[in-house]
Write a structure and sequence with these properties.
By secondary structure, the protein is an alpha/beta fold. It contains 11 helices and 10 strands. The structure holds S-adenosylmethionine, 6-(5-methyl-2-OXO-imidazolidin-4-yl)-hexanoic acid and iron/sulfur cluster (SF4).
Length: 317
Amino acid sequence: MPVAASSTSRWDVEEVEDLLDLPFGDLMYRAQETHRQYHEANAVQLSTLISVKTGGCPEDCGYCPQAARYHTGVEGHGLLSLEEVVESACAAKARGATRFCMGAAWRGPKQRDLEQMTRMVRAVKGLGLETCATLGMLKAGQAEQLKEAGLDYYNHNLDTSPEYYGEVITTRGYEDRLATLEKVRGAGINVCCGGIVGMGESRSARAGLIAQLANLDPYPESVPINHLVQVEGTPLHGTAELDPLEFVRTVAAARITMPRALVRLSAGRREMSEAVQALCFLAGANSIFYGDKLLTTENPEAAQDRALLDKLGLRPM
Ligand code: SAM
Ligand code: DTB
Ligand code: SF4
């Protein structure tokens, strides 16, 4: 089936489904074409994560080890000190990361929390790193305070399609997420927004997610594509494994529909073979989480990632 080369920025779900349905080689070819037109072919951006506040979250996201209501064995802690965060950021910079992403297991930050966060953002920015934060839903005025402190990116994921969303999360709606994304945009902060694949969703739900992301106006500067990390105790633990090539296809669809974005091969890399990761890079992924830990789960060791990039002839941006 022919897939129109889209010059418009609007993507119907069916158009994205048509992409996902392409013969694998054709899809990869399209993704490479787009990738090489808009990006340096062999450069990968490195972001390091830190969990500045872990566990005890009141939300019910079915994938998340940090939700208080699931018994996952995650050891929670309150907000880290400024010194602890700065120390981690320095270490990340020394390892070669260029972006430092601070995550907190909140439904949203209280004003007191936000003030602490602005101090952290200011300090990390002062080290010469790009700053990113993911703190949950924002209230009016909070995004502006973060921007003023020097926040470059705010991560807030749509996670899945609007239709599948209710199967995964009930304590906040799709509209709430879109409202936070608008506040981020409105404050002039770059948007980092993506989703999770492998939660038992259909191919058409993956198309629905990608279409939603691509139709944000403008589409996000940064698009994390996570593979579900199955954590015992969460409702999604035990979900049937997704064919890894479906994950690769989703990355390719993100690349084609959001040509200028950094597409990040995000959570779940530790459970992925090097061959699948290589296919994700071919599909247009040009960013990774770099460092031994994501928020609460393991990521490949930094040295192992450097070796992989080296083997593939990829160089850090
Ligand atoms: N609490 C804030 C929120 O949800 O907006 C920020 C932190 S939350 C952990 C950030 C994102 O991590 C989620 O939106 C989800 O996409 C991703 N995530 C959480 N648990 C995951 C898992 N087990 N596998 C893959 N991605 C996950
Ligand atoms: C995103 O899209 N993925 C990151 C980051 N944004 C905050 C988080 C992945 C979390 C994986 C599960 C964990 O380590 O707790
Ligand atoms: Fe809380 Fe975020 Fe985990 Fe949802 S994803 S339970 S909001 S920490």
